[in-house]
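Supplementary Methods S3. Input chains for the assembly prediction are listed below.
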Amino acid sequence: MTVMMDTGNRIAAKAAVMAKPEVVAAYPITPQTTLVEAIAEYVARGEYTGEYICVESEHSAMCACIGASAAGSRTFTATSSHGLLLMHEMLHWAALARLPVVMCNINRVIGPGWNIWVDENDSISQRDTGWIQFYCSSNQEIFDTVIQAFKLAEHEKVVLPVMVNLNAFILSHTSMPAEIPDQHVVDEYLGKYVPKWKLDIDNPTTFGNIIGPVHYYKVRRAMQDAQLNAKKLIPQIAKEWSKLSGYFHGDLLEYYKCDGAEHILLSMGAIGAESKIAIDELQKAGQKIGLARVRVIRPFPTEEIIKLGKQADLVVIDRNISVGLEGALFTEVKAALYGESDAKATGFIAGLGGKDVTYKDIETMCRKSMKGKAKEQEWYGVEE
Amino acid sequence: MGHLHFELREGIIVSSKSLVEICFHGRGGQGAVTAANLLAAAALQDGNKGVQAFPLFGAERRGAPVRAFARISGDEIHLRSEIYNPDIVIVLDESIMDIVDVLKGVKDDGKILINTRKKPNDFEFSKKYHVATVDATSIALKYNILVGGMPVVNTPILGSVPKILDRVTLQSIQNVIQGKWSGKKELGERNVKATQDAFDQTEVNF
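Predicted structure tokens for the full assembly:
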């Protein structure tokens, strides 16, 4: 075991290389660039010996991963923002073709106006593609989640692509320490990827051919079942990894000081880490509030949210907006509660465009909500 | 920034767990981000469990004022927001002070470390703040630490930090510098010597 003091991007690259994908295909985009550059350095040093394909666009990157994965290879890519959006068609394809591609997405604002800072609208707008989606809050969690993502994606009860999200700059370009296990630990945990089916010239079969309504319906149902299987497997896979690595960052959610809480804050990504300080401060001041940091939004942790709704009123912070409605997590939390709990839920939009969100900001939102002074949905910190 | 892989030094106990926030001011290309990274890595070696280093997010331009940040804590750091009230300000380029208010938000008991030929008491604000000075530019020139013909002060000035912050040792700073330049040993050694000179030549008003 060594300690690696480096940026989220470079730690993600380390995890990806240690998972030994046979194929990496990627196209650079700020702020993902240093991640794929780091993989290129591993290639240059002879430490990554898989196929590293520099393609001409993100659409092609995902196509290359789809082809390689269909041929039975473990595959990895990384992108961000407009790059992710350019992949959109192929994201659906990878999921419908049931290909366990693993991808890091660096959450960056969508333009115009042109902006390279953090918000989560890029990945949030890909929720319906069938990809499993994780959101990380520290560099250690990035490392551990990328490793677990391969395990989950390739699990015979899942076989779906997995997206590991890390916030632009706040995680991608911030150096924090991460413990890196020895290679054999990762090798033993992941094993070799053995696909149930693949493109094979010795056993010719066709994939993605025309199918009628009856069978297509079954394909969609099977995807849904696979996502629900993933929901059961994520805690198990996280626990197995924690036994080897010593690190557990939560399963679908990470609970922080929720015992006896009458309000529970739900947040994601880097705001999820900063929220812990806000909870500490609020509890010191006698407030009964805890935190449930949402790590996975697909599959959506419906049962866990219902449980929280039976315990407490909920405060939701979204670093995204479904324009014309509200923050996406807020909508989904309320949908989960429907008919199950009469908990009050208030939603805040915060930190769009990379606007800094401090623990004091989070405290302010929580206090307003706890006092019953917040509207059902509010924008926090928009300067007039 | 190259990979910094290392084993933690054994037997080191950090006496304080409190959070120290550090802001580097420099110009694009002077290596403020590298300095923040190296300092955080050194602090980790010294047993501070929580360390963090990050640039001012966004695009950098050579010569334009830039900032970089480091946090050092005895515990895991959950902060992900920017630093608004630094405990320590490190100025790599004195001329920045004409155009940037480097004292903005500094805590009342804050410390300012400046690369300059002047002495701490030459600065008006030394009446209010702890000020440390070192002529890191001359040290960089002495050891021929240059990029594109320009002296690079980011590593030499790190040698002054243990003089104003007891949470990080010169030994660890030199270790991480040697680790970073492990492929260019001779350059690494010149950088290490520069930190020793900086340590020895740092002057403080407190």
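DSSP finds six helices and ten strands in chain B. Residues 20-204 of chain B form a domain with the Pyruvate-ferredoxin Oxidoreductase; domain 3 fold (CATH 3.40.920.10).
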